[in-house]
Design brief:
Helix content is about 60%, strand content about 5%. The chain has about 475 residues and is mainly alpha-helical. Helix 1 runs parallel beside helix 3, helix 6 packs across helix 9 and helix 9 crosses helix 11. It starts with a helix and ends in a 49-residue tail after the last strand.
């Protein structure tokens, strides 16, 4: 059986369900006081289509996880849903409005269809939730392997574990829903059909034609048998092997269809009918099987997960708690510890202890802090500073590795910086320019006789 063709057929059945749901709503929209069960049938078809689309996506993404036995189960479910859809389509395509009204107001027929849709919706949903869990468990196993190699856990590990735990809770909830659905189906079978004792009595005393009339439509019991085989048969067989009980009574057919195969012999139909009710009564009269065991058996039968991968959540503390993975080591190296540091200009930092546990690492970090500080940056690059601990004591670089401890505090002080030496300017000789005003004498104080005229040096010739 080709998995790709089965996955492709899911899309067709899903689309057909949406179309039928819309057609039912259109049919009852013009009918006053239409039974609410009819709208429940339309809603069930729509919900089933949504589940089928999601199952198709999960099967495409998790193709490396599932076995061929799961594909056979899915193919069986698709065929059964297709038959229910065909039956509804024939009722909708009936000639005339009267034919449509006849089945719409026939409550027993509508309830039979509703039980069929709900049982298939429950069964396919548990396939979906089991496969979602399988994908999450595979992811968790791969992540645990990676964590063991790197020897370091992180927040992503918590998220992966929590997703897997949530997926398991959802799958186990679907087991409980399936069990209660079987009880409802059993009640419907016992109410509307024959009990196993009545079937045995009639099979011995009545003609086959009469039997066939009384068992004219064992659809509800067939749905119950199919759901029982799909969900609980692996767990029932496992429990039977543990208690050394012959599990032949609980064994399911190869494709999980039970009595859905058309058989001409009415005696065989009665036998299968009684066998299905016996199997159903055996399950529903006992205490509900443990949901975790049912899911583990389904994972073992439908997927390629190992036993360790299936039980991986249990070892991580799955008992209803969102647990965090235990640290791989108790050494301080596996925990990021910080050291408080205050630099020379008052800035505060939290430095990872692993990066500054030796002086070379601390010096590198400090240089990066002052890489673009213009005033004292060059002095820091030259190492003109001291580091002091929380007690105010200077920690020498040679003793840094012995002194630094996680969660400790340090601060930085710069060495005194010398003022830049400049060349002193020479004081000019004499008064500074502008410090003495010129003396102005009155004209009468000037003796013009003392003024000498310049000698003529040119224009004379010898006689």
């Amino acid at each position: 059986m080709d998995p790709l063709s089965v996955i492709a057929s899911i899309a067709g059945i899903s689309t057909a369900g949406i179309t039928l749901s819309r057609a039912i709503y259109d049919a009852i929209s013009s009918i006053r006081n239409a039974p609410k069960e009819v709208s429940s049938v339309a809603k069930g078809l729509c919900d089933l289509s949504v589940i089928l689309r999601e199952l198709r996506r999960v099967l495409k993404d998790g193709k490396d996880v599932y076995r061929r036995k799961l594909i056979r189960r899915v193919a069986s479910a698709i065929r059964r849903v297709g038959r229910v859809q065909s039956e509804i389509k024939e009722l909708l395509d009936g000639t005339g409005t009267l034919a449509k009204l006849k089945w719409i107001f026939q409550k027993s027929r509508v309830m039979e269809l509703l039980y069929a849709i709900e049982s298939h919706k429950t069964g396919i949903n548990i396939i979906l939730q089991t496969m979602v869990l399988a994908v999450q468990l595979k992811h968790l196993s791969e992540n645990n392997t990676k964590t063991a190699i790197t020897n370091r856990a992180n927040e992503t590990d918590d998220n992966i574990l929590n997703d897997a735990i949530l997926a398991r809770h959802q799958a186990e909830n679907m087991v409980q829903i399936s069990f209660h659905s079987l009880q409802d189906l059993k009640h419907e079978v016992n109410r509307s059909g024959l009990s196993p004792e009545e079937g045995e009595e009639n099979s011995a005393n009545e003609e086959p034609q009469t039997q066939q009339v009384q068992l004219r439509n064992p659809q509800t019991s067939d749905d119950a048998l199919w759901l029982c085989d799909l969900v609980f048969s692996p767990a029932i067989e496992a429990a039977a092997e543990l208690t050394q009980i012959n599990p032949s009574l609980y064994s399911s057919s190869e494709d999980g269809e039970g009595s859905s195969t058309a058989i001409s012999s009415s005696q065989v139909i009665v036998t299968q009918y009684n066998s299905s009710l016996t199997r159903l009564n055996t399950l529903t009269q006992q205490q509900q099987p443990e949901s975790s065991m049912v899911i583990n058996e389904l994972l073992s039968e439908w997927t390629t997960l190992t036993e360790n991968e299936i039980e991986g959540i249990d070892r991580a503390g799955q008992k209803g708690k969102i647990a965090s993975p235990e640290p791989m080591s108790n050494s301080t190296e596996d925990v990021v510890q910080m050291v408080n540091f205050k630099d020379a200009v008052g800035r505060k930092f939290e430095l990872p202890f692993q990066l500054i546990r030796d002086w070379a690492g601390m010096e590198k970090i400090i240089k990066q802090m002052f890489l673009h500080v213009e005033v004292i940056g060059p002095h820091v690059q030259a190492g003109h500073y001291d580091l002091l601990n929380s007690r105010g004591n200077i920690v020498l670089p040679a003793l840094w590795e012995l002194s630094v401890k996680p969660t400790d505090s340090f601060y930085m002080e710069m060495w005194p910086m010398d003022l830049p030496q400049s060349v002193p300017q020479r004081r000019p000789v004499g008064p500074e320019p502008g410090s003495i005003r010129p003396r102005v004498l009155p004209p009468q104080a000037i003796d013009v006789r003392n003024l000498t005229q310049p000698k003529a040096t040119a224009g004379k010739h010898r006689a």
